[in-house]
Amino acid sequence: MRGKLMFITGLAAGFVLGSRAGREKYEEIAANAKKVWEHPTVQEAAGVAQAQANKLYTEGKDKLNQSKLGEKLSSASSSSDSTTSDLSTSSVSSNSTGTTY
Protein backbone atom coordinates (compact mmCIF):
# COMPACT_ATOMS: atom_id res chain seq x y z
CA MET A 1 0.00 0.00 0.00
CA ARG A 2 2.83 2.37 0.84
CA GLY A 3 4.44 1.69 -2.54
CA LYS A 4 1.25 2.64 -4.34
CA LEU A 5 0.99 5.85 -2.33
CA MET A 6 4.60 6.75 -3.18
CA PHE A 7 3.98 6.03 -6.86
CA ILE A 8 0.87 8.22 -6.95
CA THR A 9 2.71 11.00 -5.12
CA GLY A 10 5.57 10.83 -7.62
CA LEU A 11 3.14 10.82 -10.51
CA ALA A 12 1.35 13.90 -9.15
CA ALA A 13 4.64 15.72 -8.55
CA GLY A 14 5.80 14.91 -12.07
CA PHE A 15 2.55 16.18 -13.51
CA VAL A 16 2.74 19.46 -11.60
CA LEU A 17 6.39 20.05 -12.48
CA GLY A 18 5.78 19.06 -16.09
CA SER A 19 2.84 21.38 -16.50
CA ARG A 20 4.87 24.24 -15.02
CA ALA A 21 7.59 23.69 -17.59
CA GLY A 22 5.06 24.46 -20.27
CA ARG A 23 4.63 23.62 -23.91
CA GLU A 24 7.86 25.29 -25.04
CA LYS A 25 9.99 23.08 -22.83
CA TYR A 26 8.07 20.03 -24.05
CA GLU A 27 8.71 20.99 -27.67
CA GLU A 28 12.42 21.46 -26.90
CA ILE A 29 12.64 18.05 -25.26
CA ALA A 30 10.74 16.42 -28.15
CA ALA A 31 13.02 18.05 -30.74
CA ASN A 32 16.14 16.87 -28.89
CA ALA A 33 14.74 13.35 -28.56
CA LYS A 34 13.96 13.28 -32.28
CA LYS A 35 17.46 14.50 -33.10
CA VAL A 36 18.99 11.74 -30.96
CA TRP A 37 16.70 9.08 -32.46
CA GLU A 38 17.60 10.09 -36.01
CA HIS A 39 21.36 9.97 -35.30
CA PRO A 40 23.02 7.28 -37.48
CA THR A 41 24.68 5.57 -34.51
CA VAL A 42 21.35 5.22 -32.71
CA GLN A 43 19.67 3.92 -35.86
CA GLU A 44 22.46 1.39 -36.35
CA ALA A 45 22.10 0.19 -32.76
CA ALA A 46 18.33 -0.06 -33.18
CA GLY A 47 18.82 -2.12 -36.35
CA VAL A 48 21.21 -4.48 -34.56
CA ALA A 49 18.78 -4.84 -31.65
CA GLN A 50 15.91 -5.55 -34.06
CA ALA A 51 17.95 -8.20 -35.90
CA GLN A 52 18.87 -9.89 -32.61
CA ALA A 53 15.26 -9.82 -31.45
CA ASN A 54 14.10 -11.39 -34.73
CA LYS A 55 16.79 -14.07 -34.47
CA LEU A 56 15.84 -14.93 -30.89
CA TYR A 57 12.15 -15.02 -31.82
CA THR A 58 12.80 -17.38 -34.72
CA GLU A 59 15.03 -19.65 -32.63
CA GLY A 60 12.47 -19.78 -29.82
CA LYS A 61 9.66 -20.49 -32.26
CA ASP A 62 11.66 -23.32 -33.86
CA LYS A 63 12.51 -24.84 -30.47
CA LEU A 64 8.88 -24.68 -29.41
CA ASN A 65 7.69 -26.32 -32.62
CA GLN A 66 10.22 -29.13 -32.15
CA SER A 67 9.10 -29.82 -28.59
CA LYS A 68 6.24 -32.11 -27.56
CA LEU A 69 4.19 -29.10 -26.51
CA GLY A 70 4.72 -27.49 -29.90
CA GLU A 71 3.58 -30.64 -31.66
CA LYS A 72 0.43 -30.73 -29.55
CA LEU A 73 -0.26 -27.06 -30.21
CA SER A 74 0.24 -27.36 -33.96
CA SER A 75 -2.00 -30.44 -34.21
CA ALA A 76 -4.68 -28.76 -32.09
CA SER A 77 -4.54 -25.51 -34.09
CA SER A 78 -4.65 -27.29 -37.44
CA SER A 79 -7.77 -29.23 -36.43
CA SER A 80 -9.45 -26.08 -35.04
CA ASP A 81 -8.43 -24.07 -38.13
CA SER A 82 -10.24 -26.50 -40.43
CA THR A 83 -13.33 -26.40 -38.23
CA THR A 84 -13.27 -22.60 -38.08
CA SER A 85 -12.81 -22.26 -41.85
CA ASP A 86 -15.69 -24.66 -42.46
CA LEU A 87 -17.93 -22.58 -40.21
CA SER A 88 -16.87 -19.25 -41.66
CA THR A 89 -17.53 -20.30 -45.25
CA SER A 90 -20.92 -21.81 -44.52
CA SER A 91 -22.39 -19.09 -42.29
CA VAL A 92 -23.75 -15.76 -43.48
CA SER A 93 -24.95 -13.01 -41.18
CA SER A 94 -26.81 -9.81 -41.80
CA ASN A 95 -27.43 -6.71 -39.75
CA SER A 96 -30.63 -4.70 -39.27
CA THR A 97 -30.05 -2.77 -42.53
CA GLY A 98 -30.12 -5.97 -44.55
CA THR A 99 -26.43 -5.83 -45.49
CA THR A 100 -25.01 -9.34 -45.81
CA TYR A 101 -21.50 -10.04 -44.57
For the biggest sheet, the summary is: none
Distance from N terminus to C terminus (CA atoms, Å) equals: 50 Å
From the alpha-carbon coordinates, what is the Rg to the nearest angstrom?
26 Å
What is the 3D form? flat
Low-confidence stretches: none
What letter string, H or E per element, gives the SSE order? HHH
**How confident overall, as mean pLDDT?**
79
Helix content: over 70%
Given helix and strand content, the structural type is mainly alpha
Number of strands: 0
Strand content range = under 5%
Q: Helical element count?
A: 3
Descriptive key words:
3 helices, flat, 101 residues, 0% strand, mainly alpha
Please describe what this structure looks like.
By secondary structure, the protein is an all-alpha fold. The chain is 85% helix and 0% strand. It has three helices and no strands. The longest helix has 36 residues, at 2-37. The chain is flat and about 60 Å long. 0% of the residues are buried.
Question: What secondary-structure arrangement, pairings included, does this model have?
Answer:
Layout: H1 2-37, H2 40-66, H3 68-90
Helix pairs in contact: 2-3
What would a concise description of this structure say?
The protein is mainly α and 101 residues long. It has helices spanning 2-37, 40-66, 68-90.
